[in-house]
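The data are set out underneath:

___
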Amino acid sequence: MKITLLAEDRIRFDPVPGPLSVEAESAEMSYSPFHMLASGLAVCVISTVSSWANNADIPTAGLAAEVSWEFADKPHRVGRFHLVLEWPGLAEERRATAIRAAGLCPAHKSFELPTEVHTEIRTGAAV
């Protein structure tokens, strides 16, 4: 798997064989929590659509994802993700179904619906 940081607000995920690598377009870029959120979304969507495609005997050669995001305020957060699937061999008549399959990814659903986050502090020894 290869994640490439394209900008401060955009990543690319290529599901290539081998260990995970995170690369940047420049040495000044760092892998921020926002890049991590986008990476999780990209990996989940690619996994979900690949599963659908394999079941439907649709080739996935060249399949990749780019995710960018925009911030919202009050409170400061990611307000919108824009996901682009690059899929050179996908037939036109399969695109709408592929988009629906992408929406079935659990990370995609988590961003669409309110998600509760519970935070606690432990002061004892690590378990």
User: Anything to note?
Assistant: Helices lie at 33-55, 95-102, 106-112. The domain at 2-112 is CATH 3.30.300.20 (GMP Synthetase; Chain A, domain 3).
